[in-house]
Amino acid sequence: MKRKEYILLCLIPVLATGFSLLNHNNENNDLPSDKHATKETINLYHNLKRVLDKGVMVGHQDDLAYGYGWKYEPGRSDVKDVTGDYPAVMGFELGRLELDHPVNLDSVPFDKMRMFIKDAYKHGSVITISWHLNNPLTGKTAWDPAPGTVASVLPGGEKNVLYNSWLDKVAAFLQSLKSDKGEYIPIVFRPFHELNGSWFWWGGKNCTPDDIKQLYQYTEKYLRDTKQVHHLLYAFNTDKFYSANEFLERYPGDDYTDMIGFDIYQRGSNGEFMKDANNMLFMLDSIASAHNKIPALTEFGYGGLPDATWFTSTLLPVLKMHKISYGLAWRNAGAKQDGSTEFYLPYKGHASANDFVKFCNDDRIWLQKDATKENLYKKQ
Ligand code: BMA
Fold it and tell me: Quick check: pTM over 0.90?
């Protein structure tokens, strides 16, 4: 061996140590969008990344509040009734908190919601919160697409003061979410969801991409810097999208986002769903790695579950092909006041209950006990 080669060989361990130190430092420098996030929030952020390769967490909106044919029965959950375990991710919704209502738009009392969130945290589940806030310009619902609404809440707009007062209420609720030990409960906050669609006042053709980017950034800065809320990870999510450009058109930027995802509901055949979900997940995978974000299926469902083997034949093969932090199934509202019925996960006795159990028994699919084992709020 030549002297030069010998020196180079000797350098390998030195370089390797250098690289691993660098990597270690990188991990320490890899902070959520809120650089002053609480310890538990930073831990959750790192742990969600750490377990990405291991499993996909099953989530369910309003799981502890009600299910198909029941409401507010302590400890009850449709997922628990069917599988024996709770979801690894619990979704909640703030709509109407901005109006000082004691219950949200789906009739869940905010004081009960706080208890459910405490319980989910205690058991190691991830908590995510959405906000179907009313239209501040017209006073109608989130689904009122009056043009100009987004511009009206930005600084200088006629509804900016009103919007700030709504954020004050959201901040107060979020800051009331503390464990028995007194630490703030980390929340994956998912404001302005499905923002490439035009059904909400903050979406699609109802505002410009620049307007909604500004609103997202403004909201985050207000909660974080003005209100000092430091226990949030921010999830950005679209509805169905066809290209990375479309996905990123309204993206508020890497400094404002921790998680990225999309909402998907099956409305056609199983094959179409698989094709669409796969296409979007491939794009999401690559956007997430390019931007160092956590990919998730922020909402999914096949309303009414008309196919008894959908979970194992259609959803599972798709999930297995990708890195996804979690999939949040939307709410099991059951019979609604308008005469319709809504549910996305099976309840006890439903034709797809056995198939859902099979799905959850797959090593890659996690319920609460799997999440608990990973200690997602502790430094590893
Ligand atoms: C929708 C439906 C509605 C509900 C809303 C907000 O998709 O489930 O019934 O009010 O979400 O949770």
Answer: yes
